[in-house]
Design a protein that fits this description.
438 residues, alpha/beta, 16% strand
Amino acid sequence: MGHFLPSTPDERGEMLRDIGLHSPEELFATIPEELHTQAPIGPGLSEMEASALVSGMADKNTVFPAIFRGAGAYNHYIPAIVDSVTGKEEFLTAYTPYQAEISQGILQSIFEYQTMICELTGMQVANASHYDGASAAAEAAAMCRDRKRGRVLVSQAAPPMVIEAIRTYAWGTNATIEVVPLKEGRTDLEALAGLMGADVACVYVQQPNYFGLIEDAGAVARLAHASGAQCIMGVNPIAMAQIKTPGECGADIAVGEGQPLGLPLGFGGPYLGFMATTQAHMRKLPGRIVGETVDLEGRRAYVLTLQAREQHIRREKASSNICSNQALCAMRSAVYMAAMGPEGLKQVAGLCMSKAAYAAQQISAIPGFSLRYPGAFFHEFVTECPVAPEKIERELAGRGMLSGLPLDGGMLWCVTEMNTRQQIDALVSALREVASCN
């Protein structure tokens, strides 16, 4: 079959020159220098030595009994059935279901996931997932652009990692990314109206936004549509059980981070990006789509469908080049949603909102603490702090609590159903003590 990588120094040099580089190190120029390994790699270790080394590294991790931080990754309860079902060998080791006749179980699990994502977002069709919420947002923005419309407007209230991912994806396509400013922590609708034009492809708004606030997403969608642009809503899937869905707000595409749906915090991953859209945009949807059909005997069957839009069929015309199989993460979310059901999700969302409201009220009663932004929020909120937030972070860590995220001199707090009233009261007591010592 031949080889795919250059095997001699001359061949490697020729390949580098072909792409405009002079050394292999230049390939990694975008990776921060402090992450580069400078020391030479030593000899291999035995299994026992490697296990001891990795265990020693793991012992450096701190696992907090009480977590009051979100900012994109959230501490939710995961029913035992999620691990029980998805831990089965036939699911755990499965790969891309290209051969439908021997992959019916995997295909059905993906189909069920797509169906529930559509129900959760109020959309009509969903794909088989993305790497994470940020890449799903970037793919959605790319999906909306064409030769006449190359500008993408992104709310400043979107998570910073989402904004950066959209910028990164747009870098090689000459797309213009513009950030819509804030007004009291939310998307400034007047500023958005002033930025709209015939060259705007789409508007991205986060719901709830990065500061936990509820946006007027319907107004954003109306402004986008008035200029012929699309509206992309990035949503917290748990919040969708209590507030208006993207479909109800008039959005064209719904994306988000699926981690709250049955995926553990996992020190940052692996996570799951979901994407759903309307029937009108189905053929622009990137990634895989599983469809339901019947076989020759009329029995229900599942297949990968509409594959002409996929990179392995028409690479040069593909709307995306996603090639990772996120099916296991998607299946965890499907099992979680099936186990919780609509009422269970509503209960979780309700508990998040009520506990966050209690925490915000109690923290704001401490002298020097106050809510930074007015209005309704879901389960995150920003407070001003009478002392440096980094000091609060250190003090709480010493008491077994992961504080909110330090944010521009304040702190972004998060409360989920996992936080008990006792934990919240202990947090408030600790904050009162820290503030009094200032």
